[in-house]
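Incident log, structure service

09:12 report received: a user says their structure output differs between two submissions of the same chain.
09:20 pulled the input from the user's history:
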Amino acid sequence: MISIKNSEQLKLMRVAGRITGEALLVGAEALRDGVSTKEIDRRIRAYIEKCGARPSFLGYGGFPGSACISINNEVIHGIPSDNRVVKDGDIVKIDVGACYRGYHGDSARTFAVGHVSETAQKLIDVTREGFYQGVGFARAGNRVGDVGSAVERYVASNGFSVVRKYVGHGVGSDLHEDPEVPNFGTAGRGARLYAGMTIAIEPMVNVGTADVRVLKDGWTVLTADGKLSAHYEHTVLITDEEPILLTDVG
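09:34 re-ran on a clean worker, output below:
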């Protein structure tokens, strides 16, 4: 069932979104050559809890971290570890969720560490712009397919591919709600968007094939061909006018 939030629920969603966005920036500030993904995770968790919220991901389905931190060819759901160390030239995806008084925010970005290749930087830029191409259609009266079609069209025009196995989703009192929000599709098809809906739009974009595989840890998703992947996500409030990015704090 698709949830339409009332004004009180949206107040909580705005706070959850702000905390999520700020926690993501805390993680970004920790990125440097030699830092472990576990240390980044510790800082994110500490910030979320300091704000009176809790990490949405911690324990979700058994996930052991407060953030998903995925490097280079890892697409999503990377498990933070003291043994997983960031290096100059890496691209790092940080995905954060915060739950405030029962409502969630969800946001992710891909960051360049030091000097990265031209291909890596283009991938980061195209993934971010793919999100904005899609979110431009995220308004009441349009359909989910309008969003996904715009994302896929832009990504493909730049020679990259969108992951099809994992998609965006509704966000609210549950971290994952209806509807699914694919980063592909046909304009004019799919669930209709209504004012008061809150959804996570999150392009996952690969340099090579769209195919992915999951490690034996049951979480970490990698590109099937070992090439780079990037991720960009905001929690979006649908309105009758321009969409509002609840997790965008700068």
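09:41 both user submissions now match this output. Likely a transient worker issue. Closing.
09:42 reviewer note: The chain has four helices and 15 strands. The first strand starts at residue 54 and ends at 55.
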